[in-house]
Amino acid sequence: MRIATWNVNSLKARLPRVEEWLGYADADVLCLQETKLADKNFPTMAFSALGYDSAPHGNNQWNGVAIVSRVGIQGVTTGFGADTVDPYEGDARLVAANCGGVNVISVYVPNGREVGTEFYERKLVWLDLLHDWITVTYSPTDPVVVLGDFNVAPDDRDVWSTKTFEGSTHVTEPERERIRKLEEWGFVDTFRSLYPDDKLYSYWDYRRGDFHQHRGMRIDLVLATPAVADHVTWSVIDRNGRKGKQPSDHTPVIIDIDWP
DNA sequence: ATGGTAGCCCTGCTA
Fold first, then answer.
1. For residue range A153-211, what is the model confidence (pLDDT) as tens digits?
2. Which fold does the domain A2-257 belong to in CATH?
């Protein structure tokens, strides 16, 4: 089974690229972030024409997530549930479903803007709530994959220049601590686990020609519990998603699992 | 050089 994640920075603007990508990437499950579409505008028909069922979660022209799957989508849920006060209430940043026996969670973690702002503080709370929601919803022995745009580079290997990002969001210790807490519960960073030394990125700022200068960050993560991670046969960051005309500023991250 | 680009609609704000 092939599972992927891609922050598309507007699915409306990126649909031709996503269709093209599905045509060659052969993904069974694709998690999307920054769809920037209300559910009523989600291109369900375009995906069903390619053989995929859709589970979109979007409120308006901002943020928005989705799962599309050709191995089934069952038990779709959105957000942290009615009993939780989401510090980014009104945004659409989490959708979960069971796809072919794997519990898949597509997340778009808040950016946080600047360290010291309320947006940054709320990002940390959001990450705490993600941890809490996962730990009450699943067991570490379940097959679970939480994947998407985490807006956190887990450690210094994951940024092109530590000096450039010093004091910025995405690299602060409190943010990284939240990722480690997810790993302590049971998640494996599947890409890093396979490639301990690779300085490869999933996001490049549109400005300054950052992509072509290899000035990026690895902030799009595929975290899997051992029930899944132990079956990973291959993982890649597909740089093709960032090449050519009208690319997103993120590129897809993929895992293959040997799955029954 | 505190720059630069892309996408949203609100030609400013968010990333």
1. 999 999 999 999 999 999 999 999 999 999 999 999 999 999 999 999 999 999 999 99
2. Deoxyribonuclease I; Chain A (3.60.10)
Cβ of A207 near strand B (distance < 7 A): yes
The closest of A202, A252, A219 to A152, measured between CA atoms, is A219
Q: How far is CA A13 from CA A4, A18, A219, in A?
A: 19, 10, 22
- pTM of the full structure: 0.98
Residue whose token pair is 């808040």 = A110
Kindly report the bases of strand B lying within 7 A of a protein C-beta atom: 4-9, 14-15
Decide: CB of A58 under 7 A of nucleic strand B.
no
Domain regions of chain A by residue span: 2-257
A161 touches strand B (CB under 7 A): no
Asked if residue A165 keeps its beta carbon closer than 7 A to nucleic acid strand B, the reply is: no
